[in-house]
Write a structure and sequence with these properties.
The chain has about 775 residues and is an alpha+beta fold. It is built from 14 helices and 46 strands. Strands 26, 27, 29, 31, 32, 33 and 35 form a seven-stranded mixed β-sheet that branches. The chain has a six-stranded mixed β-sheet with strand order 1-28-37-36-30-34. The chain has a six-stranded mixed β-sheet with strand order 3-17-25-24-19-22. It comes from Luteolibacter ambystomatis. Keywords: Metal-binding, Oxidoreductase, Signal.
Length: about 775
C-alpha cells in the first residue's frame, strides 16, 4: 500500500531549501562560516564538470548493459588464477608482479611491517555516550599515497562508539566542509558531497526527530545534535554508523566517514568469548584518484596527476561506475591501515568484529597459508550484530556492503605465517571475475597459550526468537532493478526511482513476510544488497541462479544452515529473498535501499512509513479530537518568552500545526510551506499558529535573524501535543487542525509525517467576506 505523505513538496522545494537552515532549531545550529575560497571559485565550471561526470557515469552503465546483453553466458568455471595468486610458481609470480599495485604483490604482503591499530574508542558513562563527529577535509596516507579526503575528525575511520542497552547516544555532527554550488536536476544523482547527516546502521531505535532520522540534512557550516535512545531490551552486537544524506552517501562513506558502533553485553559475557582478545576491524575501500591514466569513455585516455588522492563529484564517472574499483587498483584497508600485521600467540583465540564499510564491492575473507594453501578457519558467532546462537566454522566469510561478521579466530598451536585475503572469485558484484587481494599479514609467534572456543549451548539463548511459525499479517514485496532509459539507466525499486512524495505504508505490531527480487533490465548482471532501517528481519530463503554468470540458469536455494537474522542481505540478480519481520516499538518514516551506495544515491531507495493502526495517520477525526469538539486550551511561550493562549485566537478561524522539532527536515518544509502561504491565509482572515517540541531557548535561536510571520510556541513537555491527541505511546506525532470561529475543531489530521498539502488546505478556507455565513461549515479533506 502506498500513499503520498508530501503531496505538494516539489512546488515549494526551492523555497524550503532556502528556509531549511533557519528551521533546524532545537537540534541544529546553522551559522556557516564565510568561505574565503568562494571569491576565487568558478561555480559555472564546477557545475559543468559535475554535469559531465553524471553523463560519463550514465554512459558507462549503458556500455555495460550493451556488453552483458550480447555476451553468451558460459558455464561457471573454477576460480581463475590471477598474477598475484600465492599458488603460482615463484618465477611466474615475480615476472607478473611488476604490473601490480605494490600492495597486491605477494612479496610485499609477506614482508609488510605496518602496525595494526584499533580505532579510537568512546564509551558511555552513567548511561550516556557523548561524541562529536567533525566532518572535515583531512590529509592522510593510504600506504605511500597521500590523500585529501572528507573524514570524521580528520581520520580515515571514525571512532568506535561503545554503549549498552538503555543508554542514550548524544552525538554532535559538525560540518566544517566548504560550500558547494547549487546543481540543477540533482535528485537521484551523486551530488552535494559536502552536505551530510548520520545513520546508526542496524540499531532498533526511533527514526523520528533527532534520533536515527536520515531525512535530516546538515549543510556546510551547520551543526546537528542527535539524541538516540537505545531500548533497554536492545540486542547486543556489532553495528556501525555512517553518513546517509541522499546524493552524498556514496561520496562520504567512500571517503571513510563511518565507524563501528558496539552495543555491549550478551555474547560478551560467555567465558570463552570474554577471554578472547577483541579487535574491531573496519574494512574500508577508498576509491580515490591520484596519479591515474584511465579510459575517457570516448576511445581515448585521460591522465590525472593530483598532488593527493581525492574523491569529488566531478570525478564520479571514474570512481562510482561498474568496474571502477578494479580499474583504479585500490585496496581494502583495516582501520585505515594498508596491509597491517596481526600478531597472535600459538593457540590464542581472538574475537574479530568485522565491519564492511565499503560502499560498493564484495569481500570474500579467507586466511591462507603463505603458500596459498588452506590456513585458519573462521568461527562465526554473529552476523549484522545478531547472535547466531551457535558457532559456524567457515573457510570464507562473504561480506557485502553494510555486512558485519563477528568471528572467533584460533591460532594454530605452532608458529607460522599467514595472510588475510579477499579471495579471487569467478563472479563478483557486477558479474565479472575478480583477482585475489591482500588485506593483512598474520604472524603466529611467541609462547603458546591454551584457550577454548565457546560451546553452542552457551550461545543458543542469545539468538532472537524465530518468526518461522509466526502468523503473517500481510505480504510485502519489493523489486530492485537497474533499468535502461534514454541517455543511460535508472536505479529503481518497484520500477520507480526515489521520490520524496511517496512512501510504502506498514502497520505497527504487524508481522509481515517480504519477497524481495532483483530484476535488472538490458542484460545488466548485478545483484543488490537490500537494507531496511529500524527493524531486523529473519531470512528464510535465498533463491538464485545456479550459475551467477548466467541469470537464466536453474534457480537453486542458496541459504544454508537454516533461517538467519540480518539487517542487510544480498539478493542475487534474477534471484529472490524471502524474510519475515515484526514492526515493534516505533512509528515513523525511514527508508529501504540498496547498500551499494552509488545505486542508492542514484535512486534505488524508497521511503517506508510505519503507522499505528489504532490511530489512523490521516482522518477527519484526529485521535482524541472529534470534529465539533472545543479546541484544547493551551498556554505556551514563544521564543521571546511571550505567552499565548488559545483564547487569544477566539472569534478567528485559525490553523494550529504541531511539529516534532526543527531537526525534522519534513517539519522544516512544513514550516516553509505555511510561511510561503501565510499572507494568503491572512487575506482570508485565517490565523496560523505553530507548536513545536523545542524549548523556548532553542526556538529563539532558530528565529534569530528570520522571525516567523505567525506565532510559533514552545511545548517541550508535550502537554499541548497530548491535548491535541498527537501522541503514540511514548512518541509524539505531527498534527494539523483547523479551528473555526466558535473555537470548535472543524478538521484535523495526525501522523508520523507532517501534513504537507498546505495549498489545498488554503483553497478549502472560505473567503474573508464569507466567514460570517460559513462559520460553521466543515472543512473537506484537501485533495
Amino acid at each position: 500500500m502506498y500513499r503520498t505523505p508530501l503531496p505538494r513538496l516539489r512546488d515549494h522545494l526551492i523555497l524550503a531549501a532556502v528556509l531549511l537552515p533557519v528551521w533546524s532549531a532545537s537540534a541544529q545550529d546553522n551559522n556557516p562560516p564565510k568561505d574565503d575560497a568562494d571569491a576565487g571559485r568558478n561555480f559555472v565550471k564546477e557545475r559543468a564538470d559535475v554535469d559531465k561526470a553524471w553523463k560519463q557515469l550514465a554512459n558507462k552503465w549503458q556500455r555495460l548493459a550493451r556488453t552483458q546483453a550480447t555476451e553468451t553466458p558460459g558455464p561457471l568455471k573454477a576460480t581463475p588464477k590471477f598474477s598475484n595468486d600465492l599458488s603460482l610458481p615463484q618465477l611466474e609470480k615475480l615476472e607478473l608482479e611488476a604490473n601490480l599495485p605494490s600492495p597486491q604483490r605477494a612479496s610485499v604482503a609477506r614482508q609488510t611491517l605496518n602496525g595494526y591499530t584499533d580505532p579510537e574508542e568512546l564509551r558511555s558513562h552513567n548511561g550516556v555516550l557523548t561524541a562529536e563527529l567533525v566532518a572535515t577535509y583531512a590529509k592522510n596516507f593510504i600506504g605511500s599515497d597521500p590523500v585529501y579526503l572528507r573524514s570524521y575528525n580528520g581520520h580515515l575511520v571514525g571512532p568506535t562508539l561503545r554503549a549498552k542497552p538503555g543508554d542514550t547516544l548524544r552525538i554532535t555532527v559538525k560540518n566544517n566542509l566548504p560550500t558547494q554550488p547549487w546543481q540543477k536536476d540533482s535528485m537521484n544523482t551523486l551530488h552535494d558531497f559536502n552536505t551530510t547527516n548520520l545513520h546508526t546502521h542496524g540499531l532498533h531505535v526511533s527514526p523520528n526527530g533527532i534520533s536515527d532520522n536520515v531525512l535530516i540534512e546538515i549543510g556546510p557550516g551547520a551543526t546537528q545534535d542527535y539524541e538516540i535512545v537505545i531500548p533497554k531490551d536492545h540486542t547486543c552486537g556489532t553495528y556501525w554508523y555512517h553518513a546517509h544524506r541522499h546524493g552524498s552517501t556514496a561520496g562520504n562513506v567512500a571517503s571513510g566517514m563511518s565507524g563501528a558502533l558496539i552495543i555491549e553485553g550478551d555474547l560478551d559475557e560467555v567465558p570463552a568469548v570474554k577471554a578472547a582478545k577483541e579487535r574491531v576491524m573496519v574494512l574500508n575501500q577508498i576509491p580515490y584518484i591520484y596519479k591515474n591514466t584511465l579510459d575517457d569513455g570516448n576511445g581515448g585516455t585521460v591522465t590525472f596527476n593530483f598532488p593527493e588522492g581525492i574523491i569529488e563529484e566531478k570525478l564520479a564517472g571514474y570512481i562510482f561506475g561498474p568496474g571502477d574499483w578494479e580499474t583504479l587498483g585500490r585496496y581494502t584497508t583495516v582501520n585505515g591501515v594498508q596491509l597491517p600485521v596481526i600478531r597472535m600467540a600459538p593457540g590464542q583465540v581472538e574475537r574479530w568484529r568485522v565491519v564492511d564499510s565499503g560502499q560498493r564491492e564484495q569481500i570474500d575473507l579467507q586466511i591462507t597459508n603463505i603458500d596459498g594453501s588452506k590456513g585458519i578457519p573462521f568461527n562465526e558467532i554473529a552476523v549484522d550484530g545478531l547472535a547466531l546462537g551457535k558457532s559456524v566454522q567457515k573457510d570464507v566469510i562473504q561480506l557485502l556492503p553494510g555486512y558485519r561478521s563477528d568471528v572467533l579466530v584460533k591460532a594454530p598451536d605452532k608458529p607460522g605465517e599467514y595472510v588475510l585475503v579477499d579471495q579471487a572469485t569467478a563472479s563478483g558484484i557486477d558479474g565479472q571475475g575478480e583477482p585475489l587481494k591482500y588485506i593483512a599479514r598474520i604472524v603466529v609467534e611467541g609462547t603458546p597459550v591454551s584457550m577454548k572456543l565457546p560451546t553452542d549451548g552457551e550461545m543458543a539463548k542469545f539468538r532472537l526468537p524465530t518468526l518461522v511459525n509466526a502468523k503473517i499479517d500481510a505480504p510485502q514485496t519489493a523489486t530492485y532493478g537497474i533499468l535502461p532509459a534514454t541517455g543511460g539507466v535508472v536505479f529503481t525499486i518497484d520500477g520507480k526511482s526515489f521520490n520524496m512524495d511517496e512512501a510504502k505504508e506498514l502497520s505497527l505490531g504487524n508481522t509481515d513476510e517480504w519477497t524481495v527480487e532483483v530484476r535488472n533490465g538490458g542484460g545488466i548482471n548485478t545483484g543488490h544488497p537490500f537494507h531496511i532501517h529500524v527493524n531486523p528481519f529473519e531470512v528464510t530463503s535465498i533463491m538464485g541462479p545456479e550459475n551467477p554468470n548466467d541469470p537464466k540458469s536453474k534457480q537453486v536455494e542458496q541459504l544454508t544452515g537454516g533461517p538467519v537474522w540480518r539487517d542487510t542481505i544480498w539478493v542475487p540478480n534474477n534471484g529472490t529473498v524471502k524474510f519475515r519481520t515484526k514492526y515493534t516499538d516505533f512509528i515513523g518514516t525511514f527508508v529501504q535501499h540498496c547498500h551499494i551506495l552509488d545505486h542508492e544515491d542514484q535512486g534505488m531507495m524508497q521511503l517506508v512509513d510505519i503507522k499505528d493502526p489504532k490511530a489512523p495517520v490521516a482522518s477527519n477525526n484526529a485521535p482524541g479530537l472529534k470534529t465539533g469538539v472545543s479546541a484544547p486550551a493551551f498556554s505556551r511561550p514563544d521564543g521571546a518568552g511571550k505567552v499565548y493562549n488559545e483564547s487569544d485566537f477566539a472569534g478567528q478561524r485559525h490553523v494550529v500545526f504541531l511539529f516534532k522539532g526543527h531537526g525534522c527536515s519534513h517539519c522544516s518544509r512544513q514550516v516553509a510551506e505555511f510561511t510561503a502561504l501565510y499572507e494568503q491565509f491572512k487575506a482570508k482572515g485565517v490565523g496560523v499558529v505553530g507548536i513545536t517540541s523545542d524549548d523556548a531557548t532553542s526556538l529563539k535561536t532558530a528565529l534569530e535573524g528570520s522571525p516567523a510571520p505567525f506565532p510559533i510556541l514552545a511545548d517541550p513537555d508535550g502537554k499541548a501535543f497530548a491535548a491535541y491527541g498527537c501522541t503514540r505511546g511514548s512518541e509524539i506525532a505531527h498534527g494539523t487542525f483547523v479551528i473555526d470561529e466558535k473555537g470548535k475543531v472543524a478538521w484535523g489530521t495526525t501522523g508520523a509525517s507532517p501534513y504537507m498539502n498546505i495549498a489545498g488546505l488554503l483553497e478549502q478556507m472560505p473567503a474573508k467576506a464569507d466567514t460570517d455565513t460559513k462559520a460553521t461549515a466543515s472543512v473537506e479533506e484537501p485533495e
